[in-house]
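Lecture 7 notes: from sequence to structure.

We start with a single chain of 451 residues. Read the sequence below before looking at the structure.
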Amino acid sequence: MHIGTARTALFNWLYARHTGGKFLLRIEDTDRDRSTPEAVEAIFEGMRWLGLESDAEPVFQAQGAERHREVALEMLARGSAYRCYMTVEELTGERERARAEGRPIRSPWRDRAAPAGANQPFVIRLRAPLDGETVVDDMVKGRVVFRNRELDDLILLRADGSPTYNLAVVADDHDMGVTHVIRGDDHLNNAARQTLIYQGMGWERPRFAHLPLIHGLDGAKLSKRHGAQAVSEFADMGYLPEAMRNYLTRLGWGHGDDEIFSDAQAIAWFDIADVVAAPARLDWPKLNHINHHYIQLADDGRLAGLVFEVLRSRDIHLPHDFAQRLARTIPLVKDGAKTILELADLVLFALKPRPIQLEQQPLSLLTEDVRDRLGRLSNVLDQATVWQPAPLAETLKAFGEAEGGGFGRFGPALRAILAAGAVAPDLASALAALGKEESLGRIDDALSQVQ
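Now the structure, written as tokens:
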């Protein structure tokens, strides 16, 4: 399930919610080679992660094959379709002639009676009109006109009796009561062909809305070189589903200058008619900005669970009290994280096991004067009764003033000790995150390494 598919699903979901309609999910699995159980599960996982629940049980298109055949046979009876007995060799020749003449494929069986005996294999083709126009009043593109002489007699039913995509889609949309089809730009040509099938059955067709593609910042069609494409990759990269919903909603649609908004606001404001026809561009800095916003809003317990999964995937050894350490640390460092992966990096300092072994560079900071100051600071901190960032910051400030020279005389060494080779926040926040016992223990570990 790629990001374009995800945005299409989101726009369908928003429009259904905005209009009081129903959001339906259909797995179009007539291509049995591509529709593996793993591929189908990836769609369900992507939908669940994005929080897009359908309003009815998912429909599997392949299960309706018999109904699709019924529709093809009814079109035969109506005269809006015909049996085509072209052999593979004949079809190849006609395809080459049509390409050379710049026209669609035309079967000689369009207006010819069935051959004697009629036991040879055949396909059922749409009897498309040869003149006039087919018009698609698209909710995004506007009025799109197709000349009928450029539309081929597409196959509805293959020789083995299996339905083709366009037939199956139209039959399912009709039977499911679909009123609006919101899908990618690459299906616009299908809208003309499907319109002819609706007309051939005498059915009312739904409203169509074809969304522009998503490009990279360089204006080129989105590809692997632009980064993640699949929804699962965005989850693995540390983006929150609510951030993705917000960001994807803004890809091709907008409400004034509003960049960040709730699901409720998006539902209230969203109208498919406001989608722009030009391709949208995947903007990583903007996505990171939005994700940072939602990390700040997220429940710290939820963030701890997400960070734990990241750390576990990295096979990082965790102390027995890691849950308490994460609970203390995450509120103090999450302002610096644009993704969950970055948040996992920012909590690492608090999870280092003791005894802490310092590298040569931080050890070089522990001069005799600095060691004496840190020893006195440890005694002062040991007397602290409230172990929170604000009072700890006041304690450090007062200690620096009393010692003379402020933080500069001991701050770099203390930061190196508390960080233990990782990234750490300000000194007061680092102390608060580690807790009193761990903080004083790290100072002792460092001082014991230098005689």
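The mean pLDDT is 93. Keep this in mind for problem set 3.
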